[in-house]
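Because discrete structure vocabularies remain unfamiliar, we reproduce here a specimen of the format, pairing a chain with its fold in token form:
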Amino acid sequence: MEKNFFVYMLANARNGTLYIGVTSDLVKRIWEHREGLADGFTKKYSVKQLVWFESHVDAVSAITREKQLKKWNRAWKINLIINENPNWRDLYDEISA
């Protein structure tokens, strides 16, 4: 069975605080953020809405992409979200269905 890895962005509001992470279980990880089980930045700033994600076939490419995105300036990150999710919908329900 092939395992996928995901790079994702969370926000606390439209154009709000952003968080970038990587995981091999997107549904579980986002649920942890939403429930406040992930201590740290996302819990402190209530960053819970999944606004963007992409799939990778291996951990190395996902981690490389995560590091790349974390170096981007804020405007580039916002443009990436807007290009795929212009209304800043919370995508959690779509991935967990």
Summary: The chain has one domain: 5-96. The chain has a mean pLDDT of 96.
